[in-house]
């Protein structure tokens, strides 16, 4: 086993140190992330052990230290090659990012010589990188040209150039993938930070202060990730203004933006930038700052926010979701306020073409297909208002809000643990994490959700902290959780909670009692093996109770014996009663549930007619549902649920849900079937229950094969 140059250099630092070195100092000296430092230290320890030396020690509150005997050995060992420095090698992706930054931020320095100095590679490699970069730029409507004696230049719409660089750099600076790369990016954007680390800290503090003041003006709180993104946006603006570039905003857009609180905040930001960086910020750039503020994700938002048109759209989205999911939210107004806090910035992002990557999108679509499908249907009013389809990334963000509220339940379990959640991704994500944790851990009360920034000043009380990002535990223990918690995550989290709150001690006590009982009646020959098998048995038993209940499919809920065919009925009340009869006969529901469905229509109107010809009567589970079920009544003549023609229906599906979740897979499959006109026609024309089931089976199979 050998050490590469970087790890040998790190080991040299520790060997020559007289005192423990904190992780932060090692990061600064090595110009790498904390994760890389720990990874390298682990690798070095393996090397030390393989050479029969004591591994590196960590002293709490002080840092890392190499034992004296290891230091003495390395000083005398001729085979250990001391490294006084090491050279960081950029990946191709990192080189392309640095070249883009230089081209956009400092075009007058964009020459082949400067590219080679920056990336530390040959002329041929730079030329190859530039060819790839040109292809990427062309896809976004931009070009890279070269003139002898002048160098390389970028051409394209100013807003497109800035957004391209912003979207490219944001993940690097928000996720801190590589401290070295982040440092070099800041240096390219603001060369004054090259000499001293404190200059970089001063730059960041200055930008953060400007954004915090904008928060106060707008009376809201941005997520931690958005704070970093906004700071980067301002820094790019400063660099482009120093190069005398300015963007253009249409007069109609400017007129709209000037009526917002964000514009007032943007004017204050522009004044601060002019003072701090000695630049002139034109009106169009001020408007661009306002647009970015409006499009930024927030952690919380005051009640009563507008604009009113978006509030109306959100109300319709919530109504749509309840209709398609066949549920009624307990705190509908609370959901609307939380959803509105996301929809307002989402509206401005989509309106002005601002991309906001959602790394959870693919995982959420795969793990919560039904939730994503229902949210996509619910989002129709917003899509109509915008005049375009919402990207899957935005649908995923909306799904987080609906999912968080969907799992929200009134608990009857006595609170055993008080916890806080630290999450930097906004309201919807926090609610999703909260609902999943409360459903997994009995007796858990989440008392607050905080951003990383708020957590740093948190002085409240809690038994445990759940964090979606890495946090160093202080006095309160920390459990790291993903945003989307699968079954394996659940088992791990439950295990960690049990360990924290003495479940392990109780398990050991139980095993001791069992062993003592066996001792009374038998001779134990292999005590250790028996204890281990008892532990495994207890763990397996615990895991078997933690596995998530598999949601039934449509062909498991709707069966031939719950399908009926009639020519006509006297009215919609009779239609609901008739459609419910198979479920009453099977004692799936009680008579009170039928009355509750009818009463809901009287009270709320024909909301159960989700589309022309289709109605899904339902009520709350507590109104009289014994178990999950569904029935179907096909009428030849449509029945009217109101005087409007669009509220007539021939296909009546009665849903008996036991909670807000278990029926969602079946319901998503049903709505997908009913989204095709030919399927509606087949259901309306048939008189055979077997034909209905055949149609359902075909569509389920088709969906699974996609």
Q: What does this protein structure show overall?
A:
Helix 15 (308-325) packs across helix 18 (369-378). It contains 31 helices and 15 strands. It is globular, with a radius of gyration of 31 Å. It folds into seven domains: 5-76, Arc Repressor Mutant, subunit A (Orthogonal Bundle); 91-156, Winged helix-like DNA-binding domain superfamily/Winged helix DNA-binding domain (Arc Repressor Mutant, subunit A, Orthogonal Bundle); 158-296, no CATH class; 300-393; 417-500, Response regulator (Rossmann fold); 503-546; 554-705, 3-Layer(aba) Sandwich (Mannitol-specific EII, Chain A). 34% of the residues are buried. By secondary structure, it is an alpha/beta fold. Keywords: Repeat, Transferase. This is Transcriptional antiterminator.
Main sheet properties: 5 strands, mixed
Q: Low-confidence parts, pLDDT < 50 over ≥5 residues?
A: 409-414, 543-549
- The total tally of domains equals 7
Alpha carbon gyration radius: 31 Å
Q: Going across the major beta sheet, what is the strand order?
A: 11-14-15-13-12
Query: What's the CATH H-level superfamily name of the largest domain?
Result: Mannitol-specific EII, Chain A
What's the architecture of the largest domain in CATH terms?
A: 3-Layer(aba) Sandwich
Relative helix content? 55-70%
Give the total of beta strands. Answer: 15
- Give the CATH level 1 class of the largest domain: Alpha Beta
Structural class comes to: alpha/beta
- Per DSSP, the total helix count is 31
InterPro entries: BglG_antiterminators, HTH_11, PRD, PRD_sf, PTrfase/Anion_transptr, PTS_EIIA_type-2_dom, PTS_EIIB-like_sf, PTS_EIIB_2
GO molecular function, one term: protein-N(PI)-phosphohistidine-sugar phosphotransferase activity
Domain PTS EIIB type-2: 417-505
Domain PTS EIIA type-2: 556-699
């Amino acid at each position: 086993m050998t050490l590469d140059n970087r790890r040998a250099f790190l080991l040299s630092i520790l060997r020559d140190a007289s005192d423990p070195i904190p992780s932060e100092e090692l990061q600064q000296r090595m110009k790498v992330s904390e994760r890389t430092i720990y990874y390298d230290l682990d690798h070095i320890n393996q090397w030390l052990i393989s050479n029969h030396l004591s591994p590196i020690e960590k002293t709490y509150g002080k840092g890392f230290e190499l034992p004296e005997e290891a230091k003495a050995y390395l000083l005398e060992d001729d085979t250990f090659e001391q490294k006084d420095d090491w050279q960081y090698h950029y990946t191709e992706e990192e080189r392309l990012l640095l070249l883009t930054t230089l081209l956009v931020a400092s075009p007058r320095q964009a020459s082949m010589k400067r590219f080679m100095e920056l990336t530390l590679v040959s002329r041929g490699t730079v030329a190859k990188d530039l060819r790839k970069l040109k292809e990427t730029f062309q896809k976004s409507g931009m070009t890279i040209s070269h003139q002898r004696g002048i160098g390389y230049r970028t051409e394209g719409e100013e807003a497109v150039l800035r957004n391209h660089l912003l979207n490219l750099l944001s993940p690097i600076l928000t996720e801190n993938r590589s401290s070295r790369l982040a440092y070099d990016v800041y240096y390219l954007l603001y060369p004054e930070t090259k000499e001293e680390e404190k200059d970089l800290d001063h730059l960041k503090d200055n930008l953060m202060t400007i954004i915090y003041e904008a928060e106060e003006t707008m009376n809201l709180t941005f997520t931690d990730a958005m704070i970093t993104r906004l700071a980067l946006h301002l820094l790019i603006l400063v660099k482009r203004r120093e190069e005398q570039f300015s963007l253009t905003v249409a007069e109609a857009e400017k007129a709209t933006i000037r009526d917002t609180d964000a514009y007032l905040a943007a004017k204050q930001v522009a004044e601060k930038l002019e003072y701090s960086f000695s630049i002139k910020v034109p009106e169009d750039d001020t408007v661009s700052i306002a647009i970015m503020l409006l499009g930024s994700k927030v952690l919380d938002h005051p009640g009563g926010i507008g604009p009113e048109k978006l509030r109306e759209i959100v109300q319709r989205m919530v109504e749509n979701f309840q209709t398609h999911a066949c549920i009624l939210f307990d705190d509908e107004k609370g959901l609307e306020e939380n959803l509105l806090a996301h929809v307002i910035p989402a509206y401005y992002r989509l309106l002005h073409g601002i991309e906001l990557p959602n790394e959870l999108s693919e995982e959420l679509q795969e793990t919560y297909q039904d939730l994503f499908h229902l949210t996509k249907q619910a989002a129709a009013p917003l899509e109509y208002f915008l005049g375009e389809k919402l990207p899957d990334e935005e649908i995923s963000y909306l799904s987080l809000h609906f999912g968080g509220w969907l799992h929200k339940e009134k608990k009857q379990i006595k609170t055993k643990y008080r916890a806080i959640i630290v999450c930097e991704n906004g309201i919807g994500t926090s609610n999703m994490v909260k609902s999943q944790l409360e459903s997994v851990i009995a007796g858990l009360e989440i008392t607050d959700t905080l951003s990383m920034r708020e957590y740093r000043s948190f002085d409240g009380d809690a038994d445990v902290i759940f964090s979606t990002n890495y946090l160093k535990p202080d006095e309160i223990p920390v459990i790291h959780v993903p945003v989307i918690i699968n079954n394996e995550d659940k088992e791990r989290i439950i295990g960690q909670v049990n360990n924290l709150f003495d479940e392990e001690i109780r398990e050991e006590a139980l095993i001791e009692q069992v062993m003592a009982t066996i001792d009374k009646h038998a001779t134990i020959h292999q005590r250790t093996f028996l204890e281990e098998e008892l532990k495994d048995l207890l763990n397996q038993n615990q895991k078997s109770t933690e596995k998530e209940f598999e949601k039934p499919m449509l062909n498991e809920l709707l069966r031939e014996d719950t399908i009926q065919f009639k020519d006509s009925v006297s009215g919609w009340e009779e239609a609901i009663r008739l459609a419910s009869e198979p479920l009453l006969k099977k004692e799936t529901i009680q008579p009170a549930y039928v009355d509750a469905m009818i009463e809901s229509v009287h009270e709320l109107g024909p909301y159960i007619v989700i589309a022309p010809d289709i109605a899904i009567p339902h009520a709350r589970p507590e109104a009289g549902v014994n178990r999950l079920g569904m029935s179907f009544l096909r009428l030849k003549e449509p029945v009217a649920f109101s005087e409007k023609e669009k509220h007539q229906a021939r296909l009546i599906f009665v849903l008996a849900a036991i909670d807000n979740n278990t029926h969602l897979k079946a319901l998503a499959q049903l709505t997908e079937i009913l989204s095709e006109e030919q399927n509606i026609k087949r259901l309306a024309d048939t008189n055979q229950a077997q034909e209905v089931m055949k149609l359902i089976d075909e569509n389920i199979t088709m969906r699974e094969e996609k």
